[in-house]
Amino acid sequence: MKTNNNQIIKITDIDMSLIDSFPDHPFKVVEDDKMLQLTESIMNNGLLYPVLVREKADGRYEMIAGHRRKRATELAGQDKIHAMVCNYDDDTAAIVMVESNIHQRENMLPSEKAFAYKILYDAIKRKGGRPSKENMTPVVSHLRSSEELAEKVGESREQIRRYICLTNLVPELLEFVDEGKIGMRPAVEMSYLDEDTQRDIVDFIDENECFPSHAQTIQLRKLFNDSKLDTNVISEILSEEKGNQHEKLVFRGDRVRKLLPKTLPAERTEEYVCKALEYYNRFLQRQRSRDER
Asked: Exposure winner among 55, 132, 207, 281, fewest CB in 10 A?
């Protein structure tokens, strides 16, 4: 996390009850094994790196960087936390908040990237890409903001555009993306549909446990743009057998999920389950061999 020392007012201990989360903080604070390790470290050694906050007009503080450290400190049973207090403006605070997370977190969810990139893009655009600059049209401003964002996060402008599109999805569809049940490209196509249409798709998925393909979402978007899409058409399109569709295996999500490690990323779930099945099959083969002796 990079900070401008000229904007750090003081370093002090602050009552955690006075610290509010950053507005629309896009990153999940998960109480996983890493959180447990951090909590134990704080209990044994104290907080090694102070959090970063800024003062609010009402006398409280706003967390910029350190939401996980704050939660671990609470779990460690402490009331106060060591903090650097800065005087960042809104956009600088947003930029530092996102950058401090994307460079430290592993296996970020698509939803986390989506809202983080949107916050960062908007802040960069407001802070340094205003069309009021000499000879800068809105298009040039957009390009410069996109280029700066791509450089900061290490992804292509097109991939960043796709992630930001995901912020237009209803929560249910975005959760399917996080779980790896809907891919990026079909998710982007559905992001151009209005909320009512997206919820009709969610209803179909819930009733049929069938997720749309990229080709199907392209068709849905085209019909939506032509004002020819309704619930019957949605059902007709999504009921079509996909070209690569095989016999569907249905599992109860809650039953499977409780058997998976809590820290397992969604995109590695299939690999984990397949390896577990391979291991179990080898176990059954060994057992049959023993029984035949």
From this structure: 132
Closest among 192, 168, 150 to 111, alpha carbons compared: 168
**How many CA atoms are closer than 13 Å to the CA of 183, on its beta-carbon side?**
8
Q: Give the separation between CA 258 and CA 254, rounded to whole angstroms.
A: 6
Q: What is the 3-state secondary structure (H, E, C) of 146-184?
A: HHHHHHHHCCCHHHHHHHHHHHHCCHHHHHHHHCCCCCH
How far apart, in Å, are the Cα atoms of 88 and each of 91, 96, 232, 245? 8, 9, 52, 53
Contact assessment for residue 93 and residue 54, using Cβ atoms and an 8 Å cutoff: yes
Which of 87, 33, 95, 42 minimizes the C-alpha distance to 65? 95
Q: What is the pTM of this model?
A: 0.72
The β-bridge partners of 55 are 61
Residue where the block lists tokens 């058409």: 233
Mean pLDDT (whole number) for 135-159: 70
Burial of 148 (0-12, 13-18, 19+ CB in 10 A): middle
- Residue 213 to residue 145: CA distance in whole angstroms: 32
